[in-house]
């Protein structure tokens, strides 16, 4: 899968997941164009991307494409803490 097609698919999956799991009382939804890529890489026939949305829900997403098996893996994470350490 080429990188552009992979990123488009990732954004569609993240928007779909976010809209299905958002608090319905917020009356909010997002489009694939609202999803942004934080990081992505393509190595040989495989792709991986970390994505997020402008929603204030602390979620981020990891999508991996296994080119050998033609499989896509989707992980959704919630950020619980961000601790700063002075070095």
Strand content: 35-45%
Helix content: 10-25%
Assign an overall shape. Answer: globular
- Total domains, how many? 1
> What's the helix-strand series?
HEEEE
- Counting DSSP H or I runs of 4 or more residues, the number of helices is 1
Descriptive overview:
There is one protein chain. By secondary structure, this protein is α+β, with helices and mostly antiparallel strands. It has one domain (3-21, 33-78). Helix content is 22%, strand content 36%. It is built from one helix and four strands; from the N terminus they run H-E-E-E-E. The protein has one helix at 3-21, and strands spanning 36-43, 46-52, 59-66, 71-78. It has a four-stranded antiparallel sheet with strand order 1-2-3-4, covered by helices on one side. A hairpin with a 4-residue loop joins strand 3 and strand 4 (71-78). The model has no long low-confidence stretch (mean pLDDT 95).
